[in-house]
């Protein structure tokens, strides 16, 4: 959904409210969302709320016990207000840019799980924006940040091989990684990093390796 080029459709406000229970029992939070909005965005909800297929279609109650309530809250905030910058939905003034990026990754993964391609694409573009040069005041050439282990694990455990977000992370390290901005990653025990990430990174580094000069 591109709010800059399309009028914001509010016809969903007359649709029934769906109750979404997010998180484990001890940390569970209840959300309410208009069926017309979330079913339009998410194929997962569109299928789950079909009354002729699932009980949830009649009860209008969906349980997401394995999801993070904070991440779902940010996801809903973007659905209801796509006209507001994603960073404004996610961030408070005291959150470092790196943590904003991690939260962006987590909403991206949730959107992928919910089969919500428009939101997934919006957050992927935000990931690219946050790592582009000159996002930080006084930034010079190169990315504004290099993803942390938490961001890498989030993307690689929540997406499939070849996902564009995986490619974005690998390309950042291939093109801009060095001993300084990659120090935290270098110090990280290999077991803490997804094997698929290490494999993708090695393949990318080899593919972009400069040919050695013949003696």
Automatic annotation (TrEMBL):
InterPro entries named in the record: BTB/POZ_dom, SKP1/BTB/POZ_sf
CDD domains associated with the record: BTB_POZ_ZBTB_KLHL-like
Start and end residues of each BTB domain: 18-88
Gene3D superfamilies: Potassium Channel Kv1.1, Chain A
Matching SUPFAM superfamilies: POZ domain
Matches recorded under PANTHER family: BTB DOMAIN-CONTAINING PROTEIN, BTB DOMAIN-CONTAINING PROTEIN-RELATED
Name of protein: BTB domain-containing protein
Organism in which the protein naturally occurs: Trematosphaeria pertusa
Lineage: Eukaryota, Fungi, Dikarya, Ascomycota, Pezizomycotina
